[in-house]
Amino acid sequence: MRSNIIKFFSRRRSWTLPYVLFLAVFVVMPLVLIMVYAFQAKDGGLSLENFERFINQPEAANTFIYSIGIALITTIICIVLGYPAAYILSRMKLSTARVVVMLFILPMWINVLVRTLATVALFDFLTLPLGEGALIFGMVYNFLPFMVYPIYNVLQKMDHSLIEAAEDLGATPRQVFTRVVFPLSMPGIVSGVMMVFMPTISTFAISELLTMNNIKLFGTTIQENINNGMWHYGAALSLIMLVIIGITSLFTDSSSEDAANDGGLL
Amino acid sequence: MKRFLSTTYLVLILVMLYAPIIIIAIFSFTESRVLGNWTGFSTELYESLFSGGVNNSLIDAIQNTFIIAIVAATVSTLLGTVAAIGINDLRYRKRRVINFVNNIPILNPDIITGISLFLLFVSLGITQGYTTVILAHIAFCTPYVVLSVMPRLTQMNPNIYEAALDLGATPMQAMRRVIIPEIRPGMISGFLLAFTLSIDDFAVTIFTNGTDGLQTLSTYIYADARKGGLTPELRALSTIILVVVLVLLIVVNFRARRQAKRAEEQALTLKR
């Protein structure tokens, strides 16, 4: 018996066992529970009433659409601001670029809420009103580094001989960028979009603080329902968010594959 | 000209990123309760932070944050390392399944992780508090440890381990003397990652900390802000955290650069 146990643990693949159990209890089961709760009526029976409520209740559905809008705007602003920054960084001397990238990441070490409150302070300081503008600024401010970093990584590792080849073959600088550099940097943009869009769509707390509780995002709606004991409805809303995120990641997955294929064609 | 424009652009973006933080740092040197109101230079906030003049709940929150982070990061590092060693030995299909599940907490938004764990604890009838927060933190930190140890294992030459066995080492000795040293850098970076993730977490903690008033720094700040303002001492604390992180990053960067240089020199001498 004892020797059996020793034999079992000396096989290294058995070492996964504790973690497999842990994952089953703390990752898989909780997600299954979200589904169970979402499809359950308050009395415990199987039902779609939580989803019907979402569709029939304009408030939650509107917040949902509004949140997607805010997340889209934030993501677009992050690409527009972040891409040139990443491009400039990738053209710098490696040692200088490393320092600047570090400067981009450094603020991330400060607690998100403190940074958000600092943004509120900045708006107060400049006597700007808190509201939608502040909300979008705060989101961009919080998530911009997540866009710059992956794009920079891809651009920096790009094979320079491809650019030279394009130049040799007579491409103008503009063509080099639109036909070679930009398509090759697509995987970086895609992972940047994932890293900005997903957290923006699911944030709560940040929006409350930046708009003095005037604008509610979907994350806040979910949190309020859970806090008020409406677990079934909250779980259904969480499931809706999960579906949206699943769709986004499928979409971005296939486009990054396309980008990789394009890269291969080059 | 082009160079000037691009530098200006980067500087502008950095100013945007740093303006709020700089304001916090500047206003940590004045006594005013309200941020943005300068009432003369003073180190009062720093003094009160360290002399315990600040209310107990903030001190408790800071303590809780560190205890939770240290326990969660340590357990995740152990669990994740053991798991990674095992996963590395698995065949393709099983490995893919585990890797897929391992990625779930990384890709899931915090709020979903938080709510799903909340539902788990509620369904199992576990009272939420210290234990549940630590378990939750282990749950979202361990996948990162697995991810940072894994590449070290796959890059390792499996023959070294076999060689150790052939030379008479027991599997345990070979593990301790051969595998662990090889993957140590991955374990260290996994630990640090887990530690920072835990310290920074808000969304998972708020759903799993229960109703007994267990606060970490994040939830404390949140409660504070909802009451309508930041405890002024938090400005001092944030400034300290920023400076510590800045110094740490400079040291790490400096060391990495020196090591790279040394490796280069070694390579050169080897060539000769």
Question: What features would you describe in this structure?
Answer:
In chain A, helix 6 packs across helix 7 and helix 12 (218-227) packs antiparallel against helix 13 (231-265). Chain A is globular, with a radius of gyration of 23 Å. Chain A contains 13 helices and no strands. Chain A has 266 residues and is an all-alpha fold. Chain B has 2 domains: 55-231, MetI-like fold; 235-272. Chain B has 11 helices and no strands.
Concise description?
The complex is a heterodimer of chains A (266) and B (272). In chain A, 80% of the residues lie in helices and 0% in strands.
Break the fold down into its secondary structure elements and pairings.
The complex is a heterodimer of chains A (266) and B (272).
Chain A: H1 2-10, H2 17-38, H3 49-56, H4 58-91, H5 94-105, H6 112-125, H7 132-157, H8 160-168, H9 173-184, H10 186-202, H11 206-210, H12 218-227, H13 231-265
Chain B: H1 2-26, H2 44-50, H3 56-88, H4 92-107, H5 110-124, H6 130-155, H7 158-166, H8 171-200, H9 203-208, H10 217-226, H11 233-271
Helix pairs in contact in B: 2-11, 3-6, 3-8, 3-10, 4-6, 6-8, 7-8
Q: What count of domains describes the coordinates of chain A? A: 1
Q: What kind of oligomer do you see?
A: heterodimer
CATH topology of chain A: MetI-like fold
Mean pLDDT of chain A: 83
CATH topology of the largest domain in chain B: MetI-like fold
Write the CATH architecture name of the largest domain in chain B: Orthogonal Bundle
Indicate the CATH architecture of chain A.
Orthogonal Bundle
Q: What form of chain A results from the Cα inertia axes?
A: globular
Largest sheet of chain B: none
Q: Per the principal axes of the C-alpha atoms, what is the gross shape of chain B?
A: globular
Q: Roughly how many Å apart are the termini of chain A?
A: 61 Å
For this structure, what is the CATH homologous superfamily of chain A? MetI-like
CATH homologous superfamily heading of the largest domain in chain B: MetI-like
Helix and strand sequence of chain A: HHHHHHHHHHHHH
Q: How many distinct beta strands of chain B? A: 0
Distance from N terminus to C terminus of chain B (CA atoms, Å) equals 44 Å
Instruction: Indicate the CATH class of chain A.
Output: Mainly Alpha
Percentage of residues in helical conformation of chain A: over 70%
Q: Could you list the spans of chain A in which at least 5 consecutive residues all have pLDDT below 50?
A: 256-266
